[in-house]
Amino acid sequence: MGCFAFLKVIMFIFNGIIFLAGGAILGVGVWVKVDSGSLLGFLNGIQGAPVELSQLLNVGYLLITVGGVLMVMGFLGCYGAIRESRCMLLLFFVILLIIFIAEVAGAIVVLVFQPLVENLINKLGDKAVKSIKKSYGDNADVTGVWNTTMTGLQCCGFNNYTDFTDSPFHKHNDKYPAPCCKFSSCTSEAARNLTVAGCFSRLVDLIEENAVVLGGVGLGIAALEISAMVVSMILYCKIRSK
After folding, report:
1. Are residues 18 and 102 in the same domain?
2. Which region is the signal sequence (predicted)?
3. What's the Cα-to-Cα distance from 3 to each of 7, 9, 155, 158, 238, rounded to whole Å?
């Protein structure tokens, strides 16, 4: 097998996997949206099911978008390689290049404009605290999202337990959510003594603890994208010279 044929096979297999994965993701997204009534009925029929499970329906739009993009990319790569279509290979290269540039630009913005990012996070924190004080314990969606987040990260509020002071939950029960006291009786004194970390600081710690893994995954994805662009351009140039 010559180098050109080998690259065609590699390009076809690589993009075939992308296409199939995109189709699966798209199919799940479409099913979630089309059969939302049945899914909601199933979720509501589960005894003790958390209220926040109904929010899974909103993920359908994201799945449809991601699946559609992956299918387009996979099709362009497969068709361009097998049919030796320079147009398809060029489109595949351009789309992948745009995605790669967007990723690099996002990383640069985070690094260069760190003070701006911190300012945005502070504003987000203010909004989150206001939402807690206004709706936690009264709005099922807000309450469910925060309960899931606090349970998963083993944290309390955005900053700490004081975020829940004067919230509907605190006013009605005269205590704080169970995660703020490690799921024991959560009075003001217990919450103050246990000092469970806020969810934002826990998230930062989690990212720092897994920085090496996240960096490796990011570099791996970047390497795959660059390799795919290089292979598509080699095929493009080879087809041109034939």
Report:
1. yes
2. none
3. 6, 10, 55, 55, 10
Number of folded domains that form the chain: 2
Model-wide pTM > 0.70: no
Q: Are 147 and 181 in contact (CB under 8 A)?
A: no
| Chain centroid offset of residue 115 CA | 23
Amino acid in position 1: M
Which amino acid belongs to residue 241? S
Rounded to whole angstroms, the Cα distance separating 29 from 65 reads 9
pLDDT tens digit sequence for 21-48: 888 888 887 876 776 555 454 444 444 4
How is residue 235 written in tokens? 């095929």
Does some domain include residue 226?
Answer: yes
Q: Which residue is associated with the tokens 């398809």?
A: 88
Whether pLDDT at 146 is above 70: yes
The rounded distance, in Å, linking the Cα atoms of 194 and 231 is 56
Q: Which residues contact 85 (CB under 8 A, 6 or more apart)?
A: 79
pLDDT band at residue 142 under the 50/70/90 scheme: confident
Residue 202 located in a structural domain: yes
CB-CB contact of 132 with 157 (8 Å): yes
Which one-letter DSSP state was computed for residue 52?
A: G
Parent domain of 192:
136-206
What letter would DSSP give residue 182?
T
Picking from 146, 150, 140, the residue whose alpha carbon sits closest to that of residue 182 is 150
